[in-house]
Design brief:
- The chain contains 2 helices and no strands.
- It has 60 residues and is an all-alpha fold.
C-alpha cells in the first residue's frame, strides 16, 4: 500500500500534465488565430481579384 501511496503522491506532484495542457491550449489559440488570418487574407484577395477582373472586362 505504501508503494501505491508513493506513486499517487509522485503523480500529483508531477507538473508534466498541467504543462502539456497549457501547451495544448496555446496551440489551439495559435491555430484559431492563424485560421482567422488566412480567412481574412483570402477574403481580401478574392475581392481584389474580382475588382481587377471587372476592370479588365470594362477596359478602364
Amino acid at each position: 500500500m505504501k508503494v501505491f501511496a508513493k506513486k499517487v503522491q509522485r503523480f500529483l506532484a508531477s507538473e508534466d500534465g498541467p504543462t502539456a495542457v497549457e501547451y495544448a491550449v496555446m496551440l489551439a489559440l495559435i491555430v484559431v488565430v492563424c485560421l482567422a488570418a488566412i480567412k481574412s487574407v483570402g477574403t481580401n484577395t478574392s475581392s481584389t481579384f474580382t475588382n481587377v477582373a471587372g476592370q479588365l472586362k470594362t477596359g478602364s
